[in-house]
Amino acid sequence: MLTKFETKSNRVKGLSFHTKRPWILASLHSGVIQLWDYRMGTLIDRFDEHDGPVRGVHFHMSQPLFVSGGDDYKIKVWNYKLHRCLFTLLGHLDYIRTVQFHHEHPWIVSASDDQTIRIWNWQSRTCISVLTGHNHYVMCASFHPKEDLVVSASLDQTVRVWDVSSLKKKGASPADDILRLSQMNTDLFGGVDAVVKYVLEGHDRGVNWAAFHPTLPLIVSGADDRQVKLWRMNDTKAWEVDTLRGHMNNVSCVMFHAKQDIIVSNSEDKSIRVWDATKRTGLQTFRREHDRFWILAAHPEINLLAAGHDSGMIVFKLERERPAFAVSGDSLFYAKDRFLRYYDFSTQKETQIVPIRRAGSTTLNQCPRTLSYSPTENAVLICSDVDGGTYELYQIPKDSIGRSDLQEAKRGPGSSAIFVARNRFAVLDKSNNQVLIKNLKNEVVRKSGLPVPTDAIFYAGTGNLLCRSDDRVVVFDLQQRLVLGDLQAPFVKYVVWSSDMESVALLSKHSIIITSKKLVHQCTFHETIRVKSGAWDENGVFIYTTPNHIKYCLPNGDSGIIRTLDVPIYLTKVSGNKIFCLDRDGKNKTLVIDATEYIFKLSLLRKRYDHVMSMIRNSQLCGEAVIAYLQQKGFPEVALHFVKDEKTRFNLAIESGNIQIAVASAKEIDDKDHWYRLGVEALRQGNAGIVEYAYQRTKNFERLSFLYLINGNLEKLSKMLKIAEVKNDVMGQFHNALYLGDIQERVKILENAGHLPLAYVTASVHGLHDVAERLAAELGDDVPSFPEGKEPSLMPPAPIICGGDWPLLRVMKGIFEGGFDSTGRGAVDEEEEGADGDWGEDLDMVDSDGLQNGDVTAILEDGEVAEDNEEGGWDLEDLELPPEVETPRVNARSSVFVAPTPGMPVSQIWTQRSSLAADHAAAGNFDTAKRLLSRQLGIRNFTPLKSMFLDLHTGSHSYLRAFSSAPVVSLAVERGWSESASPNVRGPPALVFNFSQLDEKLKAGYKATTDGKFTEALRLFLNILHTIPLIVVESRREVDEVKELIIIAKEYVLGLQMELKRRELKDNPVRQQELAAYFTHCNLQMPHLRLALRNAMTICFKAKNLATAANFARRLLETNPNENHSKAARQVLQASERNMTDASQLNYDFRNPFVTCGATYVPIYRGQKDVSCPYCTTRFVPTQEGQLCTICDLAVIGADASGLLCSPSQIR
Amino acid sequence: MAGSPDHLFNLRNNFYLGSYQAAINNSDLPNLSPDDAVERDCLVYRSYIALGSYQLVINEIDSSAATPLQAVKLLALYLSNPHDKESTISSLKEWLADPAIGNNPILRLIAGIIFTHEEDYNEALKHTNAGGTMELHALNVQIFIKMHRSDYAERQLRVMQQIDEDHTLTQLANAWLNLAVGGSKIQEAYLIFQDFSEKYPMTGLILNGKAVCCMHMGNFDEAETLLLEALNKDAKDPETLANLVVCSLHLGKSSSRYLSQLKLTHPEHILVKRASSAEDSFGRAVQSVA
Question: Tell me, which fold does domain A524-618 have in CATH?
């Protein structure tokens, strides 16, 4: 049982879940009805109008209503939004036990101790039916969820099923209700509207509860005989099916579970029992110490139950609903029902992969808890609580998406098991506090003790484990047996790694801790409610869910809400603004969220101001929250750009030191306080102009004078003096005079103010004797005496420079300045003030964070080292033994050891197995390769083949640096590798030449021919001819292609050679014509043939061999040449037809089929004797026999040869 | 079996996986036991040897150093002076005959390496076959592979797997053997190198290993990418160059640049030797056929 919420109160007699909101109503024996939010754990409201215990309470499905019934015989209908009782239904004559709304009709059914069941219409507020028949208290009555039935239980030991279908007609015409009212009395006594359908007898004592099955025709009842009975019904009858015994006292309530095949009952024996509805055996019992149970309620939609007892109630669920899942790249593997399933994030398709073992339902909560996946081995580990913790290892078949049979999974005991490397997994052995490292055959490879008492292990990168103990987690390196990181953390439930494995989020019940991979703490988030799940987005923001929110955490510790949730979800992946999750039914869902806020904050944090800029420009981010955030985070200059309100703007401008905007805002606001603050800030920055302006606006003359004094601006000071004079401000006048050092003025002021002695003293001290005398005369006897030896000291020094600004404090000019000021807001006079103001370098902020981190790691390292030391002592002792044991063994062995004879090198195997020349060449066995070629193709001249041989040989081995400083290992590369090839069986060598390369060359050759680059083309075709002897292909069909290729290449070589020859023969027109003519008889591609024909036609026409030219023209026309060419051909034809003669005799008879001799370039007509090249099949006149073939330059003309062998398929 | 942490783990790993400079740089480990310190020094000097700094090793190890270090110095002497191997080999033999130090695993290891260079596998195995350290076993695997006796190599590997299946050398030896026997095992070798590349920083050795696997699987394009990455790390690495030559040939690209580079920097490389001997044998064969 997973308790979700608990209350302490008076005895709870009635409970009802709200359909949509996380609310539950509890009616108490004290008469109070409480409305709780069980998710937040708060009491929302209480309704206290009943007099005496309230036994029944029920929420309406859709309206903001609930109904209650109590011992005051009253049924009350409440509106919880209005916090009040709407009306009271009166009629029952004794305690009311239960009340229930109908799911669609405006009805309420109530059961009462007055032995009746009543059905009320709450819209007309009338009783529409009274069901009589029970002859003792009716303890409960409820509507069937779909059909027109009511089931009731009574202390008369019966359960009754009532047919209420006839009431529908009544209800259909509510206007009739008033009429009906009069008839009610008749109905009361044997009315026809609601009739008893079945009476179920079988309990020996009073029945406390009866309930329908939500879908099947079943009823379950619980009674004071301590039994739970199961009943079945059909159209005509109902009968008892089975009895569930086990409760030790009166069964108070019982019900079917909506989603699972179980029955839940509770009793005054202080227990809740769960029964298997099919096997009818007890599954589990939950006991309370002191409280008898009275009532059960099930949530109509989600998997929650509630039970009321003597001192409160509990909201709980029976089974965990979190699906076990693992994310790997773009795939999600998860367990649902009895299958392992696969979900592809990119295509959003899900498939069922393999069936997994279903836990025998002997107890609850046996479904998979965690799942771990190894992508390379395509294997899945599933852990569950079966038998106190077991894991199962499934291999996902290659052609995965199948309905393969239930494979016998490899399994073993252990509460957590996870993959720690490609083909290794760790299983926690809690009792010995060690992990077993196993391979995929489920064999233990290694054991490793754990540094802390561990109750669960999680993945922490390859070869590492994250071990959880009660109050801390450590990252443990299994190979080095080193603790890499250690952190105090409240009981961590889930661990989520970022995709780069650099950060990890540790999820506890109510908190999230984000740390680096070595558990260096970064930040902690606390929640008041449960943390459900989390996932990292690509930017390093951690997104998590609580039961009702999706939230984000930024690396700096800021967090916020992204959106609210109706039901809990389990995040699997976050990708951009898409959130992938599993819901409680194990269905994959995709939510689209607005990621703007956290991306914005993240960009700020990362100082990606360009992003911030574009986000500000392109999205509507404004709002007090953002401004406050920016201000708080020290980005007033950014916030500035969001704000329209002048006062806020002014404040932000001052804070960010942006004087121009502050001035603009101050002008708009124009009140004394703001001017004053502007002045203060401007003074701080040293912007005397603005200070002056601000003082002027506030008419703060004294400050202004002082400013002028400091600035040495005597001119303005004297102006100030005048202003003071005009204003009749004697003190101001005096000050200004003092600042100016204007003695006469001062004397004058003092005199005017009547301070004659002072005026006299001033005058005489400063040597204004005439004035002094005048004053002395005026004063007469009162001439004051002077202190002796005082020099006049009240003379201000003369200013060195005057006016202008002081060097300005450097104000941070962010990227924003340029970007936003251009919007035109608040452009102020002094545009360039920053330019002359730079004092020098900006202060380099020492990165205090970095420093601290460094220190911390240093300390950590120290700590580790210290630890190591302690253990070092042990190490030595361990190590002492082995050498002694080993020494004799070495000697003993070396005396008997006989080194094995070297095996056969792969290249030798190649030559033995193959009769293909290429294989021999690759093996480096050039001798045999040449013999083979000589035998097969009559090749005698190997010089053109040299580079091919060498390349084949070089390409046959790769090089592996194995042991350091030891010689390199060379490895034979084999061709035709496939995954299923068995090891140790040698394939033939991989060859550096293949057929497709030749195809490329052929195309290149064609192109060169078309372009008229005959030498180049000739080279390419020759290369093809030279490579083919060393080509190996697989199939017979390809062999034919190779042979075809020889012919093509040969024809071109011959043709091109003739063409080149023709060009050399400038002075022999007859031979030229002949060669051009023969060229047209080589087997060429159509475009090339056309070119050859045109060529021949032109040459012959020019040489006045009109008949021959006409022949070429005709042949050219047959090839459908383009317009120009065909026009020329027709003209030649026309010209020739007039005079079908040849000027000179050619050795060329186009009517007689012939081939051209490859050496002498003369036609060999059909029937004439010839010899041919055994390789390239070029024909020659017999005199050429025994010579080297002039076309392929390889074979000897007329030599014996067995033919081209270029495929193993030819040998088989 | 909780055992104490293994201080030299990272150092060894770096060395085995060919990040020699990292091994040298991170060798300053405090509080080592005397034995560990000697092993550390051996690894560091062997890293220098692997980097070609023979003279440094020869100069730094003086006659008072421990036997293992002397052995390492011997290796440096052997490799630094290809023309005067005899004296090195004779002193090596002398030491091996000395019962007091003849059984030192490092000395035996060095003997194994030197005799393997001499292609005297019987002599090499005489000293290494008994095993005793993972390195000796790994060297055995390599010698057997060179002798084309993968059956023996496999037996050695079994021994290593029984000692520590997850040891870096076990994994490496497994990959070597997988490559040597070929077939479906190539895939496994690839996965082993892949694992290394995920677990540890990329080294030329790992990249070459992956590339060789790719080549054996016929995937020359990927091999070329990997090799070019390796070339970025070390432009003079002989294996990278040699494999690039092979790879380019298969891709139909010109290999002459890499080949001449290799000939310049490592005239003794097996590929260069093979190429020149092939040329000779071609000439001979022409004569014999003609």
Answer: Thrombin, subunit H (2.40.10)
